[in-house]
């Protein structure tokens, strides 16, 4: 995966396995907007996931934002409810799977995003 400047706005996302995934397997994921959505009832998994997986994000400790990274994304004013309650998921998950110390996942969900009844709320 890898996407930039995309928008998911005003949708209802329900009963999925993974919902919204922003990750950097094949390139950077930057400057996306996930806002004003209802993300509901994905009982087995996370519903909004931001994951840095690409080890090319910082070869030799030097950041390469044109190669990889999850950054500058806006997660705002979403209702996240009933997610991850049966499985290994959460409401909103930000994670780095890279072993590189300088890997980046710098997106921060806004205070307006509400997580209720989720396994691992923000």
Q: What key phrases describe this protein's structure?
A:
four-stranded parallel beta sheet; mainly beta; about 120 residues; about 30% strand
Number of strands: 12
Give the quaternary arrangement of the chains: single chain
CA radius of gyration: 14 Å
**Distance linking N and C termini:** 23 Å
List the helices and strands and how they pair.
Elements: E1 7-9, E2 12-14, E3 20-23, E4 29-30, E5 33-35, E6 38-40, E7 48-52, E8 70-71, E9 74-76, E10 79-81, E11 92-96, E12 114-116
Parallel strand pairs: 1-5, 2-6, 3-7, 4-8, 5-9, 6-10, 7-11, 10-12
Question: Could you provide a short overview of the structure?
Answer:
This protein is mainly β and 122 residues long.
Tell me what you see in this structure:
Helices cover 0% and strands 32% of the residues. The protein is an all-beta fold. It has one domain. Strands 2-6-10-12 form a 4-stranded parallel sheet, with no helix packed on it. The radius of gyration is 14 Å and the shape is globular. The relative contact order is 0.24. Mean pLDDT is 76; it is low at 99-108.
């Amino acid at each position: 995966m890898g996407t930039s400047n995309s928008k998911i706005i005003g949708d209802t996302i329900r009963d999925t396995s993974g919902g919204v995934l922003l990750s950097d397997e094949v390139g950077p994921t930057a400057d996306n907007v996930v806002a004003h959505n209802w993300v509901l009832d994905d009982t087995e998994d996370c519903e909004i996931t931001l994951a840095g997986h690409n080890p090319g994000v910082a070869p030799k400790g030097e950041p390469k934002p044109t190669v990889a990274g999850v950054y500058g994304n806006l997660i705002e004013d979403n209702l996240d409810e009933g997610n991850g309650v049966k499985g290994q998921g959460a409401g909103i998950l930000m994670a780095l799977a890279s072993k590189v110390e300088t890997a980046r996942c710098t997106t921060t969900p806004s205070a307006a995003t509400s997580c209720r009844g989720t396994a691992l709320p923000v």
